[in-house]
Every structure is written in C-alpha cells, then in structure tokens.
Amino acid sequence: VDQSALESIANAVVAWPGDTIVEIGPGRGALTDILARRDNTLIAIEIDKALSEKLRERYASNSRVTIVENDVLETNVAELVAGPFVVVGNVPYYITTPILFRVLRPPFPRSAVFLV
Fold it and tell me: For residue 91, what pLDDT band results from cuts at 50, 70 and 90?
C-alpha cells in the first residue's frame, strides 16, 4: 500500500477535537493505523470476522479505537457515536450507493471521504 496515498486520504478526513471518526471497511488496517494516531475516537466497521479479530488484537491497547464486526448496511452509525462524527471509507463499487444512503442521513456526519 502506498503510504503517501494513505496519508493523503487521512489528511482529507477533517475531524475536529471531540469528533468521532467512523471508518467503513478498514480491512487490514492500513488507513486505520494512521487515523488511530489522532486524538479522536475511532470506530471501524468491518464485516469480515477474521479481519475484525486481527484489528481488535492490534488495537487492544488503544482505548480510543473500537472495532465493530458488522455489515455497515446493517449498522446504525448514529447509535455508535455520542456526538459529532466524520466518515471515511474505501467502499466496494457495487455497494457504494446503498452505503451512501445508509450513512448520509440524519444525523449527518460533519464530513465524509469515500474512495470507490
């Protein structure tokens, strides 16, 4: 994975102090590693059980990171966050529209960065 590309994506995620960052589909955690360095709470939603388990192990010592094993299309993001939030995700093309409709509804994120 191109580290400079990941840094560029992370820089596009504008999260204010107190905002929660919601990452959709963290996969192996390449972008998650960068986002987890911030002072924000990070909630990563991953559908794959094996990847979720590896991510939980990796971030076990970071109290700001929560891994949610679930399909984002079945996840009520508003129930996961306690205030303002931003969304970032590298989403599969074939489910981009359903994900956008699922995430971009009240309460709205402050911002959203999606890669397709």
Answer: confident
In what side-by-side order are the strands of the sheet with 20-24?
65-69, 41-46, 20-24, 85-90, 112-115
Q: How many C-beta neighbours within 10 Å does residue 25 have? A: 20
The CATH number, out of the four listed (3.30.70.100, 3.30.420.360, 3.40.50.150, 1.10.3720.10), of the domain defined by the range 3-115: 3.40.50.150
Name the band, by pLDDT with cuts 50, 70 and 90, for residue 20: very high
How much is the pTM?
A: 0.94
